[in-house]
Amino acid sequence: MIVRLRNAPRDYAWGSRTLLAALEGRAPAEGPEAEVWFGDHPSDPAETPDGRTLGAWLADQGASLPGGRLPYLLKLLAAGSPLSIQVHPTRQQAREGFARESRLADGAARNYVDDNHKPEIIVALSEHFEALCGLRELDATHRLLDAIGPATAPLRERLVDAEGVRGALGWLLGGGGSETVAAIIAALESAQSTEFAAELANARRVAAIYPGDAGVVVALLMNYVPLRRGEGLFLGAGQLHAYVSGLGVELMAASDNVLRGGLTPKRIDVPELLSIVDPTPGPVPVVLPVAIDHGSRGIESFPVPVDDFRLLRARVGEGDESILRPTGAAVVVATAGAVTVSAGSESVVLEPGQALFATPGTEELWFTGDGEVFAAEPGGAA
After folding, report:
1. Is-above-0.90 flag for pTM?
2. Is 325 a catalytic residue?
3. Which one is catalytic: 260, 310, 313, 315?
4. Given 253, 287, 321, which residue is the final one in a domain?
């Protein structure tokens, strides 16, 4: 059984007036449009065409989900300006943190709103997508800081190993390095480097949006990764990351646990951040799609090392057809052209930005037409 899903874009300040609008072929929005959620997360559940939430629709059909909820959340994400630098806990850290904070009074500041981890993958839909993810190899970071000049010396002397990086993050975000932060941001204006031209340009842009924010200097320690359309990034527990600009399709475990590390007016719990961040420097590999075959045809998967979800893609042209045999409840969103999605005698035509839900037990989803769709399903299949 399949049913259309809809949801209104969330209006976070970092959203874009144009990216989602261009995808859907409409005029720019009056305000920022940041994310569209296609799932049953209680913070913003998607709805069926008659206005019922996905959960209510399932209940009315006499259907249910294993565990009572989808294990994932599929989104369209449109970054018009940088998101906050953030990190997510492991499952064990989330369970312990949620149990610990459940004793707090209602309304108290919390880091953990549920007991789940939040690994995620994003795949670029715009021709150019920018992200900061993970911590750069220290030798390269020292070369970048050298290019900025003497103002970076108090920071450079801390960056001797992974634990030094952790200490530097605490020093920067805790306020101890405020004079160094100000001096580095000022020095960015005249800094030049052929090797790190893109990183410096990004840092200057971020500094203009978040003047004086220690996150500007944290960002200088992170890998700057530009993606082309169809390339992805997987972010696991403990990895610092921030999406900078562009449109993407994002899939994550069903959680809203976020520890922030700069580029935000929101609260930063420095000790808790330091307790869960992975300070190990190193590159974050770009994720490319691979063909799959577990009874499906013409389907590509973006490999991830978690069992909460899988992100799949089907691209069809006139006369083509792709077949997906879902591993469980699936959500499908169109990102180009017009694709007809069929399940048994039911068919739905999806255009960019439109989505549908397929109930557990749906044996096959057929994709025909001329366009592209992404599908989310539970992980664990071969």
Report:
1. yes
2. no
3. 260
4. 287
